[in-house]
Amino acid sequence: MCLAFLLATALPALARDDGQFNQRPSTQFTLLQDVDIDRYSGPRGSRAFELTVLDILENAYDEVGEALSLRPRRRIEVYIYDPNIFDAEFSRLFGFRIAGFFNGTIHVRGDARIGAQLVQTLYHEYVHAALDWRSRGAYPAWLNEAIADDFGGLSVDKRHLNRAEFAFLEHIARQDVWIPLDNLATSSLVHLSGDRAAAAYLESYALVEFLVRKHGMRDLRSLVETIAKTRNVRRALRRTYRATLPELEAELLKTLR
Predict the structure, then answer these.
(1) What's the CATH architecture for 3-135?
(2) Is the pTM above the cut of 0.85?
């Protein structure tokens, strides 16, 4: 059974069963949240929580728009769930633990306080929404997830691979258990689990981080635009970087071995 069908059947059921979402709009988003916050006003009340979340999302809209010229021309719905409800409803649909996902609307595992994890997740899932708006289905999973991870990291001032991430990539590169990125060209990585999921996400992020560091954000923006126009990833990579995906991957692997 496909993920889209599972989500399509699960989401309406959740809304009917719970029905306690507080709704608040902003310029680009409509927030619906069901986090267990027992007061409305004050610095820890639901109103402050909602306004802060919307401010984070509007910042994501501006930053991604500036960097990649991605500015969806429709209001995006964002659901933030009580963590217990999110885990009960959605953990069975994925092969790995998640904090959020995009399936036409953004769905995020919430918390009563806004920490780095929630900020990263909001940015990450917004990038998926923006890429989907620009050219649905055109972007391979490795690029889609890597750009989302990149902006998620930037949202909390993480700009490069950390030591643990670099060591993990070094290990899988030297042990020849690296997953070729051509194998991650499907529309999603949800079929992966455990260490393979961790490797797939980190490899993807590492390549895009490497490309941005070497060639700059302007070329990444050009890649995103060219794929949207041609729906041909191989051609877009050649136009932008004068190389194939395996050639770019080989350059990255040289830095890890």
Answers:
(1) 3-Layer(aba) Sandwich (3.40)
(2) yes
